[in-house]
Amino acid sequence: MLEGLKWRNIEGKRLIIAIACDKNKNILMTAFMDEEALRKTLETGYMHYYSTSRKKLWKKGEESGNYQKVLEIYKDCDGDCLLFIVDQKGVACHEGYYSCFHYKLKNGKWVVDEIYKDDHS
Amino acid sequence: MLEGLKWRNIEGKRLIIAIACDKNKNILMTAFMDEEALRKTLETGYMHYYSTSRKKLWKKGEESGNYQKVLEIYKDCDGDCLLFIVDQKGVACHEGYYSCFHYKLKNGKWVVDEIYKDDHS
């Protein structure tokens, strides 16, 4: 589909890593895309992922309503990771936090400490 | 080693995704860690990765001098991705750019357009 991508063998599937950020540089989540998920994302303008646990295409927000509208797309130098700048509706994390990255390592333990918050700016 | 991590089968190895950001939220790079790379990172305070192409442990900066000193560590909700806030010496990308994410999708083509720059703030 797109040139310059390096699909990786992840859990036995041909996938690429996808990072979603908001336009204020807050990282919302990382997940995976197969070719179908990437194609759907490009076609619709909304983030689609491949769920390695459910083994199927997954439109972000299809259950929660927390859709991610694509604004810009970047890739890294070796092409195995895509970065999507998105407009996040609601929160990204199914645990109710704005970002999935809300566990910080303190004294060898993971404790809730949000590095990224919805700053609405 | 650390609880709550979800190691994935990536290219036939048991790996976790590692994102390195600077303290201004700029994403520098993504790569992989095996347990040894994570242990070395925790022990030394400097980023170590597992190279899937060279199939070996790799200390970031060992050839370029562009080391990454670890400041903070986060994980995401499902534990398959670690986020390291680092102090980046020099640039992160072997192509000479501050961040590895310097290709933007424009009209179906990847063109150099740096979303993250060293803002020294």
Automatic annotation (TrEMBL), chains A, B:
Its EC number is 3.5.4.19. Its cofactor is Mg(2+); Zn(2+). Catalyzes the hydrolysis of the adenine ring of phosphoribosyl-AMP. Mg(2+) binds at residues 76, 78, 80. One of its GO terms (cellular component) is cytoplasm. The gene is hisI. It is found in: Cytoplasm. One of its GO terms (molecular function) is zinc ion binding. It comes from Methanocaldococcus infernus (strain DSM 11812 / JCM 15783 / ME). It is an enzyme of class 3 (hydrolase). Keywords: Amino-acid biosynthesis, Cytoplasm, Histidine biosynthesis, Hydrolase, Magnesium, Metal-binding, Zinc. It catalyses: 1-(5-phospho-beta-D-ribosyl)-5'-AMP + H2O = 1-(5-phospho-beta-D-ribosyl)-5-[(5-phospho-beta-D-ribosylamino)methylideneamino]imidazole-4-carboxamide. InterPro entries: PRA-CH, PRib_AMP_CycHydrolase_dom, PRib_AMP_CycHydrolase_sf. Pathway: Amino-acid biosynthesis; L-histidine biosynthesis; L-histidine from 5-phospho-alpha-D-ribose 1-diphosphate: step 3/9. Residues 29-102 form the Phosphoribosyl-AMP cyclohydrolase domain. Homodimer. This is Phosphoribosyl-AMP cyclohydrolase. The keyword Hydrolase applies.
